[in-house]
């Protein structure tokens, strides 16, 4: 077989080692769509799939493994990553020749063990001259649905999407090309998003007789107009959710008891070059955080705030929640602002304080 102009030659010793390990351990591996999978949600036609005793892992539990030699298989990789903690799922990407494609995904029961795997196995030498690269997986969970008709009501479209596939978590509507609408749908996991991606086009064609495009949502950092400000008035096809387009980029506030976490408890971001001290202390923290997210291609930060109470000293106490699309967990905390200014000014102060907290966490020593 050929890949990138090079002949792929299988290593008989590696293949034999894998077959012996599978026979000895009775481990179940299933090849699905260019990947070989252990664990995770069971395929429809398999009943004796490995049992997982805990809850289904949430965001932040998966690691991305690259620089895997092409003739190394699960018999070497799964025991290595299971040494950290039990695996919920392991997926090795495969090509048609029977060699692996050089990367895999391992998912643990919680983000803590995923972090331990990164710290202990990053740069692990599998064989001479071959060191693994292990980092947190981005776990894409958002699909972009293009060519949607204008005049769509968000809540009704949510019901339609939830009737087509499982795992729909949230929905944002944005102006699309040619007067249409683009719907950005967030799912509970990469798996549920992948399953939905396979069926959405056919479902909309069959149910509404329209052709839509479905692709993974990417984050270019370019500003987008809020769909609330767009004038979208075209009529959707018969039976399609309609009335008025209405959506918000801000998710509902999720408060952690109103307590501000210690800086070290924030989710970690990759660190670009450290900005100057003056930029951190005196600059526009909101603009600086947006710039950092653009540099890392994480998507624009999404802020939400909620008024909590007035302190005995007269300050107004606000909780904030900042969701950065490329980071698995949101940043939450609390800050205080002086009374007397307008609601918009208060909101800007909370945004600034939230961005400053995240930046200090990101660049702390």
SSE topology sketch:
Blueprint: E1 2-3, E2 6-7, H1 12-25, E3 30-32, E4 35-39, E5 62-66, H2 74-82, E6 87-94, E7 100-108, H3 111-121, E8 125-127, E9 130-131, E10 133-136, E11 142-148, H4 154-164, E12 168-175, E13 181-187, H5 190-208, E14 213-216, H6 277-282, H7 285-295, E15 302-310, E16 316-323, E17 331-337, H8 343-363
Helix pairs in contact: 7-8
Helix tally?
Answer: 8
Strand tally = 17
Structural class comes to alpha+beta
Task: Give the amount of beta strand, in percent.
Answer: 25-35%
Overall, the morphology is: globular
Residue-averaged pLDDT = 76
Radius of gyration: 24 Å
Walk me through the structure.
The protein has 8 helices and 17 strands. It has helices at residues 12-25, 74-82, 111-121, 154-164, 190-208, 277-282, 285-295, 343-363; strands spanning 2-3, 6-7, 30-32, 35-39, 62-66, 87-94, 100-108, 125-127, 130-131, 133-136, 142-148, 168-175, 181-187, 213-216, 302-310, 316-323, 331-337. The strands form 5 sheets. The protein has a 6-stranded antiparallel beta sheet with strand order 3-4-6-7-5-10, with helices on one face. Strands 12-13-11-14 form a 4-stranded antiparallel beta sheet, covered by helices on one side. Helix 7 (285-295) crosses helix 8. The relative contact order is 0.09.
């Amino acid at each position: 077989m050929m890949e990138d102009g090079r002949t792929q030659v299988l290593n008989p010793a590696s293949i034999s080692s894998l077959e012996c390990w599978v026979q000895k351990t009775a481990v179940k591996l299933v090849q699905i769509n260019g990947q070989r999978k252990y664990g995770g949600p069971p395929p429809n036609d398999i009943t004796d799939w490995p049992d997982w005793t805990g809850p289904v892992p949430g965001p932040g539990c998966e690691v991305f493994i690259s620089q895997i030699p092409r003739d190394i298989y699960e018999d070497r990789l799964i025991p290595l990553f299971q040494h950290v903690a039990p695996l919920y799922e392991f997926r090795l990407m495969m090509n048609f020749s029977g060699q692996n494609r050089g990367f895999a995904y391992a998912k643990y029961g919680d983000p803590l063990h995923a972090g331990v795997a990164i710290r202990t196995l990053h740069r692990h030498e599998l064989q001479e001259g071959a060191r693994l690269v292990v980092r947190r997986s981005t776990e894409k969970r958002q699909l972009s649905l293009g060519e949607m008709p204008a005049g769509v009501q968000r809540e009704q479209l949510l019901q339609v999407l939830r009737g087509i596939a499982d795992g729909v978590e949230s929905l944002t509507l944005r102006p699309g090309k040619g007067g249409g609408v683009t719907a950005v749908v967030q799912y509970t996991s990469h798996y549920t998003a992948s399953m939905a991606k396979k069926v959405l086009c056919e479902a909309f064609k069959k149910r509404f007789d329209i052709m839509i495009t479905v692709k993974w949502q990417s984050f270019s950092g370019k500003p987008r107009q809020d769909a609330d400000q767009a004038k979208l008035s075209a009529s959707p096809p018969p039976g399609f959710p309609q009335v008025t387009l209405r959506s918000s980029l801000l998710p509902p506030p999720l408060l952690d008891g109103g307590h501000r976490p210690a800086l070290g408890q924030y989710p970690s971001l990759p660190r670009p070059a450290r900005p100057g001290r003056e930029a951190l202390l005196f600059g526009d923290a909101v603009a600086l955080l947006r710039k950092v997210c653009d540099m890392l291609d994480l998507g624009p930060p999404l802020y939400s705030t909620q008024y909590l109470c007035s302190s005995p000293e007269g300050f107004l106490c606000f909780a904030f929640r900042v969701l950065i699309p490329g980071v698995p967990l949101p940043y939450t905390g609390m800050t205080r602002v002086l009374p007397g200014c307008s609601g918009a000014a208060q909101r800007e102060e909370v945004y600034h304080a939230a961005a400053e907290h995240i930046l200090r966490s990101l660049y702390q020593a």
